[in-house]
Amino acid sequence: MRGIDTHIKEVLDDTAQRIEESPELNCAVIAYVGPIHPQIIDTFISKIEQVRHRIDQQEGHPNPRRLAIMLTTGGGVVEVIEKMVQVTRRHFDEVFFIVPMQAMSAGTIWCMSGDKIFMDYTSSLGPIDPQVQNPEGQFVPALGYIDKVNEIIDKPQGTISDAEAMMINRLDLATLRRYEQARDLSITLLKEWLVQYKFKDWTHHRTHNQGKPVTHDEKIERASQIAQDLSNNNIWHSHGRMISIDTLRDKLHLEIEDYTDHTNLREHLKSYAGLLVEYINNTNQAFIVHSTTAGASS
Prior knowledge:
- The structure is a single chain.
- By secondary structure, the protein is α/β, with parallel strands linked by helices.
- It has helices spanning about 1-20, 40-55, 80-90, 105-110, 140-155, 160-170, 175-200, 215-230, 235, 245-250, 265-285; strands at about 30-35, 65-70, 95-100, 100-105, 115-120, 125, 130-135, 140, 255-260, 290.
- It contains eleven helices and ten strands.
- The strands form three sheets. The chain has a six-stranded mixed sheet with strand order 9-5-3-2-1-10, sandwiched between helices. It has a two-stranded parallel ribbon with strand order 4-6.
- Strand 1, helix 2 (about 40-55) and strand 2 form a beta-alpha-beta unit.
- It has a single domain (about 1-290), classed as 2-enoyl-CoA Hydratase, Chain A, domain 1 (Alpha-Beta Complex).
- The protein is globular, with a radius of gyration of 21 Å.
- The mean pLDDT is about 90.
């Protein structure tokens, strides 16, 4: 088993190095695969610091303040995302996100903290529906509970079923408030990060009012609309809805870097992500954070 693990590590390191050296990125790369949970924070911080140290020891690095995060996740806890963004931005000025498979829910919020988002035609983001811990200790999507409660409250008097009435009577208001706070935090962070990072180079309108300067208020307005749309279950109808690059561009008007036709990069990313997913599935690990021990060449 040790020999197999060593071989897998060598393949992962080699593939990660090829991705780092790609002309589309040309920077350090970290891969994160798995749910986003408080238990991952220490491992993530350690990996970020290791990569920072590796770059600092390498003379002539082409982009020493740039990091690309290859992300595959079904989502998780938004407070964890906030901490990881703070840590990452302490060490790197420019952060790219690469989504070879899917980055759902809190993963989508994390991507919105990047300066660029790379996807191909098979990649997916998702509605921003943060995971919160219910009284039984299980992590559940917050928006589903909030929407159901609002639906029952809005029903005309006399039309609420016995089951719905029982649900409302058993509902802990503190728990509901925690769900609402998780939703509000998700929207707040997404708006803040879009304006601060994703929109930082958006200086002139490209379609409507083409050529005119973009104001700070217009950036806030666009970010607010994106946040509201991504958190609107009436649009997506499902916590697990997979939102494609075309939908993100055409309906949400988000600028996404499409690497579909970049054959070498796409093949390396597919191999890298697939091997990491297979590895954690076979070893029953909850998550993995990986980066190569080598560096990008100049």
